[in-house]
Amino acid sequence: NAGVTQTPKFQVLKTGQSMTLQCAQDMNHEYMSWYRQDPGMGLRLIHYSVGAGITDQGEVPNGYNVSRSTTEDFPLRLLSAAPSQTSVYFCASSTPQGIGEQYFGPGTRLTVT
Amino acid sequence: ILNVEQSPQSLHVQEGDSTNFTCSFPSSNFYALHWYRWETAKSPEALFVMTLNGDEKKKGRISATLNTKEGYSYLYIKGSQPEDSATYLCALPGGSSNTGKLIFGQGTTLQVKP
Asked: Residue A23 and residue A25: Cα distance in Å, rounded?
């Protein structure tokens, strides 16, 4: 099993450009989430999904869109990149069974200039 | 929004020192508390998930305790080693059950000097 995979690992964007961060998992987990990590702020939840076709907003959703058409994939779209979106982005997955331990991908480091 | 606080924000210790840090959270509607270790250039990995008041968990030299009545958890590292250098994150579900949504504290960054 590859677990949770994310692409790309690094990306540089210009202000106003759009892009999609990819996330996939092969563990058949129903739950998937996107977090951003900024210095001194831990991980902040952007959007999450409890299953295909169902998404909801987290703590910091503005400027980001998500969709979940399959159990495996949960892409994060930046509509018009801003320097404030420079961050490290982590995708995670978990299962509704048990107590919700999350499995994280390797992260995408995004710089917006 | 659930408020999860961790202290201290950073800690520098010498190899062999024992150390501990705190995660504080609202005690009402408690469901579970997660501890994750996040090493530089890697992904966060789960250390413990705790659910019961008075729970104690241990993994090698790392242990954690939970007090849900007063809303805190302690993480202890006995005899710190350089490989323990990492950011330790605690998190709680953003609801009263397993919703796939975690709210994290700011983290405690531990640096262990050889």
From this structure: 7
